Structure formats: structure tokens, C-alpha cells
Amino acid sequence: MSDVSKVIVTGVLALITALILALVNSSISARAGIDENLRAKRLELYPVLWDATKAISRWPRVDITRGSLEDLHGTLRSWYYEKGGLFLSESARDRYSDVQALIEALLTDKGDPDCLLAKDAYRDLMETASAMRTALTQDLNTRRRQSFLETWRRSRWHKKEESKAKTRIQTASDSKKPNFTPKQRI
Questions:
Q1: Fewer CB within 10 Å of terminal CB in the chain, N or C?
Q2: Residues 6 or more apart in contact with residue 99 via CB below 8 angstroms
Q3: Could you give the angle at which helices 3-52 and 119-140 cross, rounded to 10 degrees?
Q4: In angstroms, rounded to a whole number, what is the distance separating the alpha carbons of residues 161 and 133?
């Protein structure tokens, strides 16, 4: 190969390399802008969902009635379709679905709106809602930065939470015990 041919081949390869790098850089920059806009929208919408689930908090535990659980079910549905469902990641949407499916299973018990949610049912719902809130923090990266190892850890965690939620939902659906008990009058 002559010197001129080598120069032309080298120039063409350099031009192709520069073009590929420019395309990759442009794609990364565009994606970063989308990600930041998505995060900003989530920061606006997720606190509303977070606040709604305070009805089933770990600390302090509160009495939740059938009526208030029906209200929560509707509030979560409204939030999903009117505000934030579009912005949930796949994992957060799965955890949201777990919460709604468990509430649905618990509400199959027909009864007085003033009946209290049983302790076991409350614990299951509390754990499922906690998993959803954790998924929201993961979407926002408010607790831990995401590396490859963290991505893998989160993936495993979501698989475990999905399995636990399915068990809780099945237990609530199959339970012969009532999910609600009459309020104690003092």
C-alpha cells in the first residue's frame, strides 16, 4: 500500500471514529436530559403517592377501617390514572400493582365500613406498601447511587418483593379468617 493510500485510509477511519463518538455522545446527552426531566417530574408527583400510604405506616401503626382502606384504594387509583402512573418505572409500577392487588384481596371480605383491618392483614399491607415506597426512592436515587452492582442488587430485591407480595395476596384471597374485625367500643 502506498503512503497516499495509508493516509486516505487513516483519514477515513478517523472520520468514521469521530462520527461514531459524536453519535454516542449525542445519544448520552439526550438521554441524560430526558432522565433529568423524568426525575424532576417524579419529584413533583411521588410525594403525593408517598403521603397517601401513610395510612398504613410502620411507625406508628394506626387503625385502618374497611372504609378507609376502600378510600385508599380509590386514592391510589386516582393518583395512578390522573397524575403519576405514567412516570412510574417498571419496578415501581410492579410494587404499586402489588399494593393495589393486596388491597383488592383484602376488600373481598364484605362488611361494615367501620370494621378494623386485622393485625396480620395490616402487617402484610404495611410491608407491601413499604416495598412500593422503597421502589419510589430507587426511581429517584435519593438513598443510594446506582452502579452496575446496585442495579443487580435492586433487580434481585424486586424479584424477592414480587414473590412476597404474591404470597401475601394469595394468603389474603384464600384466608378463611376475616380480614376485618368489628371495632371495640370503649
A1: C
A2: 53, 76, 125, 128, 129, 132
A3: 150
A4: 12
Question: Cell triple for residue 186?
Answer: 370503649
Secondary structure class of 140 (helix, strand, coil): helix
Q: Is the dihedral of CA 169, 173, 48, 64 positive or negative?
A: negative
CA distances from 100 to 6, 97, 147, 150 (A): 66, 5, 30, 27
Separation of alpha carbons 130 and 58, rounded Å: 8
DSSP string, 7-25: HHHHHHHHHHHHHHHHHHH
Cell readout for 112 is 361494615
Give the SS3 label for residue 117: strand
Q: Hey, CA dihedral for 45, 90, 75, 52, is it positive or negative?
A: negative
The pLDDT tens digits of the residues spanning 32-91 come to 544 888 999 999 999 999 999 999 998 888 999 999 999 999 999 999 999 999 999 999
pLDDT in tens, 136-185: 999 988 776 667 788 888 889 989 999 999 999 998 888 777 788 887 65
Cβ neighbours around 68 below 10 Å, total? 18
Cell 409500577 identifies what position? Answer: 93
